[in-house]
Amino acid sequence: MIRKILIFAIVFPSFLPLLAEKPKYQYFGKAYDLSTGKYIYSDNHKEYYNNGKHTHSEIQYKDANGKVFGSKHIEFDQNPEVPTFKTVDERDGYTEGADVKGKSVRLFFKRKKEDPLSEKTYTPKSPAVLDGGFDYFVRNHWDELANGTRLSFHFIAPVQLDDYKFAVLKIKDGEWKGRQALYLRLEIDNFVLKQVVKPFLLVYDVQTRRILQFEGLSNINDENGKSLKVKIVYDYPKEVLEP
């Protein structure tokens, strides 16, 4: 058996990490149209850990029929709040992401497969948050948010090649499907833009500090390339919510 494994590793070396690496946690979120309640897609997460630390995640996006149409690779090991990531929608080639090296961030995006890649490298103002790093921002500032402190930060938007001032604050303490929950509102921290950009509503589990529900503009587009307005409800296995 060992000899067979060695031969396989020599002949197909790139496959070895795929065999050795297994996700610690798997879960998914179901996205529903915010207006009609129609089920649109799911985001399916695999979380990978090294020595107890969440290093990266792989996410597949599936339509209502279960067909995969997009993916995201996101790395949390260097800076959890400003992670390196890349999202690709295979339907039209929409791509966005960021390469993070120290304090420097290279943003990139294209709306369609045939478009040239637009990019910009700069140093965002601090504190900065990028993509799925928002969850870590919430976890890292949990006590402040739970106590009612309104926190501002610079939310980096690759598709705009820029960042915008946002703020997050507690709406209430409550329950969500029988679990103690913290309800938050995420809003753009600009009086003029606040009139046109509606806030995001989020629900986090108090025990695990995991997101339970999201309402607002999705990072997934509709068939016309416009962001969907959704409610995403997350479903975790027992070992995640009861560690």
Write the topology of this structure.
Elements: H1 2-11, H2 16-20, E1 25-33, E2 39-50, E3 53-63, E4 68-75, E5 84-89, E6 95-101, E7 104-110, E8 118-122, E9 128-130, H3 133-140, H4 142-146, E10 151-157, E11 162-176, E12 179-188, E13 200-205, E14 211-221, E15 227-235, H5 238-241
Parallel strand pairs: 9-10
Antiparallel strand pairs: 1-2, 1-15, 2-3, 3-4, 4-5, 5-6, 6-7, 7-8, 10-11, 11-12, 12-13, 13-14, 14-15
The oligomeric state of the chains shown is single chain
Helix and strand sequence: HHEEEEEEEEEHHEEEEEEH
Helix-strand makeup class: mainly beta
Q: Tell me the number of strands.
A: 15
Strand content: over 45%
In DSSP terms (H or I, runs of 4 or more residues), the helix count works out at 5
Rg measurement, Å = 19 Å
Choose one word for the global shape: globular
Q: State the strand order across the main sheet.
A: 8-7-6-5-4-3-2-1-15-14-13-12-11-10-9
Unreliably modeled segments: 1-19
Q: Give average pLDDT, whole number.
A: 91
Q: Tell me the span between the first and last alpha carbons.
A: 35 Å
Structure, explained:
By secondary structure, the chain is mainly β. Helix content is 13%, strand content 52%. The chain has helices spanning 2-11, 16-20, 133-140, 142-146, 238-241, and strands spanning 25-33, 39-50, 53-63, 68-75, 84-89, 95-101, 104-110, 118-122, 128-130, 151-157, 162-176, 179-188, 200-205, 211-221, 227-235. A 15-stranded mixed sheet has the order 8-7-6-5-4-3-2-1-15-14-13-12-11-10-9. A hairpin with a 4-residue loop joins strand 3 and strand 4. The longest helix is centred in the first third of the chain and has 10 residues, at 2-11. The protein starts with a helix and ends with a helix. The relative contact order is 0.13.
